[in-house]
Write a structure and sequence with these properties.
flat; two-stranded antiparallel sheet; six-stranded antiparallel sheet; 179 residues; 8 strands; alpha+beta
Length: 179
Amino acid sequence: MIGYRQASFQQLLVPLGCEKKVSKNLLKQMLIAIISSGLVACAGQSSSENDATAEREPRGSDCIFESTIRDYRVLDESNLVVTAAQRKNYHIQLSRPAYGLNSTWGIGFSSPTSQICSGFSSVVFNGSFETEEIRISSIRALNEPEYENLLIRFGLKEPEKQKIPPPEDIEGAEVEELD
């Protein structure tokens, strides 16, 4: 019967016939290389899946300079569109419904900086009994088709009806009358 002995991790790394100890630095370097290659493999995984997910998820990290805000339009109690300079539209989502936002005479913004950003900026308006301040959960810049689709989604604009072309007469497709 052939005998065997249990080897330690260091002994497994040493080539057969070599009795020198493997230095701790070499072990650390090998461990770092293994972990790094694992991280690189995970980071390079299927960028097309990440792109598809990014298209479905709303962008919410856009900011607006407070001095560029020109107009706003309330979509519902939790959503509004702000128009800034150069006719840029931004969809703002609030962290909770702002009851009375539809009937208020005006709104304001509260921010510690000159920029209105999601997370730390708020919409300020006169609510039913007192002034309310509601935190902004996301701000997203809109292009023209996105703006139109948003208005349609909230029922503020009728979708364009597609014109159906009249049926064409096709030769040989006449209806035959039976007696």
